[in-house]
Amino acid sequence: MKLSRSDRILLDELQRDNTRNQADLAEIAGMSRTSCWRRIRDFEDSGLIERQVALLDPQLAGFHIQVLLAVSMTEHTDENRLAFENHVNRLDEVTECFTVAGERDYVLHVVVPDIETYTEFLNQEILKHRAVHSASSTFVLKRVKYTTQLPMQGRQA
User: Fold this and answer.
1) Which of 5, 86, 117, 133 is 20 to 30 A from residue 19's alpha carbon, by CA?
2) 136 - beta bridge partners?
3) Domain limits at 88?
4) CATH number, domain containing residue 36
5) Distance (Å, whole) CA 75 – CA 81
6) pLDDT truncated to tens, each residue of the chain (157 aa)?
């Protein structure tokens, strides 16, 4: 998608705070209100804006344990990959899942309220899966940076 400078400014502002009214957004992006509204609809229709959500603080929401879970597969078949990915997509505790290159095949971000819940999750939902060979847990001590905002003005696509 070809994005103008105004589009990038608008997308930056929407990522920062999507509760702003369109008059403010239009002014910041140097657009008319109608153009601003139309561009937002275009971004939604194209899939560039996937969805609009509220971002919660895991600690305040009661999720005191965050884990980066690296998983190795038993075999690298399409059947195993699809079975594992479908399984992971049904697990609420997994907030992100990446296929990766290197020693492991997947890295999952897992949030749970306590270590007991994580132990049960790991044993019942991950290690018992037929496609999983092994898993390694790295416990998050402190979140240093967290953003969902893409650097729209800092990079040219």
Assistant:
1) 5
2) 70
3) 65-139
4) 1.10.10.10
5) 9
6) 899 999 999 999 999 999 999 999 999 999 999 999 999 999 999 999 999 999 999 999 999 999 999 999 999 999 999 999 999 999 999 999 999 999 999 999 999 999 999 999 999 999 999 999 999 999 999 999 999 999 998 755 4
